[in-house]
Design brief:
It contains 9 helices and 12 strands. It has 225 residues and is α/β, with parallel strands linked by helices. It has a 5-stranded parallel sheet, sandwiched between helices. The chain has a 4-stranded antiparallel sheet with strand order 6-7-8-9, covered by helices on one side.
């Protein structure tokens, strides 16, 4: 049974989310703000965090950054009343995986939680199958319908990163930082070129997925039905 940490300073919202998640078969733990969450997370060892944006002492953005620093592989869903694009951009840049605005439907919350947990199970695997493509990090090989495709290392790393979190939007800065490092002295065109090359190598009709541009945010990989 997966355990979800709920971080919200409103006890009524915490109770509501607890009831919804328990009804979906999850175990829950609670924190009243960002500092409380960081103090409890080690002992609680949750599989995922659902955090409010507007928190006292440490807001959701800062908590998200701290979680990404110390608990990189924990899925994060941000709950907030702010639906504006700049707020969403800040959230994704801080490291959230998904964004749900208040008020929300209980069924949608459960669907998003389950989807995020599935994505992270895929990401922690050393071998990912996405569409008709298999990406093996043990041998750093990529095959499509069993035929090996030779690709440069940076393209492999970029594809593995995106495929490990299907449906998750990565900001341009986040991808550059993760793949090229903090001290990268190139420009954003480097990322664009690598994305273009992956799209050429793996046409959506053949590969079973596409790399979508999310305007104002960055990129995400989408599996095609």
């Amino acid at each position: 049974m997966s355990k979800i940490m709920i971080v919200d300073d409103d006890p009524n919202i915490r109770e509501l989310v607890c009831v919804l998640l328990k009804s979906g078969g999850f175990e829950v733990c609670e924190a009243k703000d960002g500092r409380d969450a960081l103090q409890k997370i080690g002992a609680a060892a949750p599989d995922m965090a659902v955090i409010d944006l507007m928190l006292p002492n440490m807001d959701g953005y800062e908590l998200c950054r701290k979680l990404r620093q110390y608990y990189e592989n924990i899925p994060i869903l941000m709950l907030t009343a702010k639906s504006e694009l700049p707020a969403k951009v800040r959230g994704f840049e801080a490291g959230t995986d998904d964004y749900l605005t208040k008020p929300f439907e209980g069924e949608e919350l459960l669907m998003r939680v389950k989807a995020l947990l599935r994505r992270y199970k895929i990401e922690t695997s050393r071998e990912i199958q996405i569409g008709r493509v298999v990406i093996d990090k043990n041998s750093y090989s990529v095959t499509i319908d069993g035929v090996k495709e030779e690709i440069p290392m940076k393209e492999f790393e970029l594809l593995f990163k995106l495929a490990g979190f299907p449906g998750r939007t990565f900001s341009r800065d986040q991808l550059i930082e993760d793949l090229w490092g903090y001290d990268f002295d190139g420009n954003e065109r480097t990322l664009d070129v690598h994305i273009s090359r992956l799209r050429e190598r793996f046409p959506s009709g053949q590969a079973g997925f596409k790399i979508a541009t999310v305007r104002g945010l960055g990129y995400r990989l989408e599996v095609l039905s």
